[in-house]
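Homework help board

Subject: predicted structure for assignment chain

Our instructor gave us this sequence and asked us to write out the predicted structure in token form, then describe one feature. I got the tokens but I'm not sure how to describe them. Can anyone check?
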Amino acid sequence: MNQISGGLVADPARPRVLVVGHASGAHLFGGERSLLQLLELFGDIGFDVVVALPPSENGEYLSAVIDRCTELCLTAIPPRLPHQSVDEQVVATFASIITRHGVVAVHANTIVPREPLIAARRCGVAAVVHAREIPAHDPELSQWLQAAAGDLVASVLAEADYVVANSLATSRAYPLPGRVAIVPNFVDIHEFDRVDAHDARAGSDAAPRVALIGSTTEKKGVREFVDLAVLLATLTDARFVIVGPDSPLTQQLQAEGLPPNLHLAGYAHTPAAALRQADIVVNLSHCEESFGRSLMEAMAAGLPTVAFARGALVELVAEGETGWLVPPDDLSLLAHRVLQLCRDPQLRSRMGAAGRRAMAQRFTRQHAAAALRVAYHAILPGEQARRQAASDIVVRLPMANRSHHLHQFFVGNRASFAHVSAAAPDRALWGGAASAPPPTSEVVARDVDDEVGAGACRAAADHGHLA
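My token output:
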């Protein structure tokens, strides 16, 4: 195991979670970006993070992970193979990481890792799976992990104390009543400010560009995108662009001959770079998408979208407002909707603007952090109680103000300063008889929002004004 110090300094007062990722190739896609976002969210809600990844030669990705954690452990992480024996050596390695760092939970960033969750169970810490797959509609996943979809789901449920899903559609694939939470991906629309230029495009005579963005595999609908370009070749001057890395499939398509209106643009290093090559973004996946990051980013960039109505895409795209949803595999209707957008730049502008507003309202970092915080309150109720007690402000009041503090009340000139609940008078502070009035009483201030609120509590206590 190779241990690399992270860019963040560990804080003994913060709980620590071990996030387990999956193998990364030469290029970053949605899975890798989702892990980086998760690390940021844990920091937002007050956790230190140790990360475990399989060895990788993708230096850009490793550097980004290191910047967001206190330590990175590069170690073997075999994929989940339900019908094969557990690798006890890997379990032992993860048990040592859990013990050495004192982690309170192991958070697998996909359903693929298995041994880290088993180690968590044996060490008595929470085993959490962040599900980003819908096995029932992903035959390639079943083929890779050598198990039927039902067996994969059963394996996950047997080893997870809690499931965090990235969408409602994903959550429905893992029936674990009372122990499933939804924490969506998030997007910063300001990363796409340069892409959002609809007014300029609406008045432009340039041919619109229809783009398919992401990994170039069969299940992403690459062949269907080629068929779409052929269908619309004589009906519009639109250009069709595949933004994704070279792959065996793209090489095969080139050998077969691509239509003249279709261009292979290659891999784009950032989502913004990919979207600068598009005016309309489509998603033609065969499998049910568990989220649909490329469409979220397209809408954040102010671009209209067209997609098959599968999986979580119906949660992202507002039909007729931010784009179009068509029945799965209905290429004819899909072509009709794309043609509508190609011929109407004002429609592209309206839908794109609506999508950008929707993403700014629904998929912010703040919303995702709040969802993760709620999930971990349920996953680690004891940890929440400990952190609550650590943040309490206990003040002793002189009885001169003659308040027995029998009811909950607020402190300061803002109700959000601190919520204060009364405790019984502490007679041990003065040692008097039970019938005698104690000179002081204790109250506890909880949920103090900020240092201003904390200061207000202490100042009020000093002057006997907590009444």
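Reply (TA_rk): Your tokens look well-formed. For the description, you could write something like this. The chain has three domains: 2-186+365-384, 189-362, 392-462. That's the kind of observation they're looking for.
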